[in-house]
Amino acid sequence: MTDISDILFYFAAGLSLLGVIAHEVAGAPKVLGPLKTSGLPDSVIWLHHFSWHVGSVAVLAMMSLFLLAAWQPSGFLFAAVATAMSAGFAALGIGLATFGNPALWRTPAPYPWTLIAILGGVGMYFMERPL
């Protein structure tokens, strides 16, 4: 039987997958393309490419953890790690937009991770835990 926590974890996993797709399909050309003509050293450009794709891999790992949380009867730890990852991404996006450059508010960076962290936290709240 699927309970409310599983539904919330599936929703968080689905939003994570959508985030990765948007990041790679829509975001990469907007961000990585202009770097080629920026005049920055190749090491900086390719480190940015590497970092960009590491972000996608991290979100895929988070998505997998949410799925494991839904599939495993004792998946609380999976949910906790995935929720902490999303909360960390949210804090990074909000912190950089607030204290770094407000231009970041006009990007998706601060927003989806907050919603996903909330879904994970509410899912954990409703999760059945052994005594």
How far apart lie the N and C ends? 20 Å
Unreliable runs, pLDDT <50, ≥5 residues? none
| Major beta-sheet overview | none
**How would you classify the quaternary structure?**
single chain
Q: Roughly what is the average pLDDT, rounded to an integer?
A: 93
Overall body shape: elongated
Cα-atom radius of gyration: 17 Å
How many DSSP-defined strands?
Answer: 0
Count up the helices. Answer: 4
Helicity range = over 70%
Structural class: mainly alpha
Relative strand content: under 5%
Write down the secondary-structure element order.
HHHH
Topology:
Elements: H1 4-36, H2 42-71, H3 76-100, H4 112-126
Helix pairs in contact: 1-2, 1-4, 2-3, 3-4
Could you give a quick summary of the protein structure above?
The protein is mainly α and 131 residues long. The chain has helices at 4-36, 42-71, 76-100, 112-126.
Relevant terms:
131 residues; mainly alpha; 4 helices; elongated
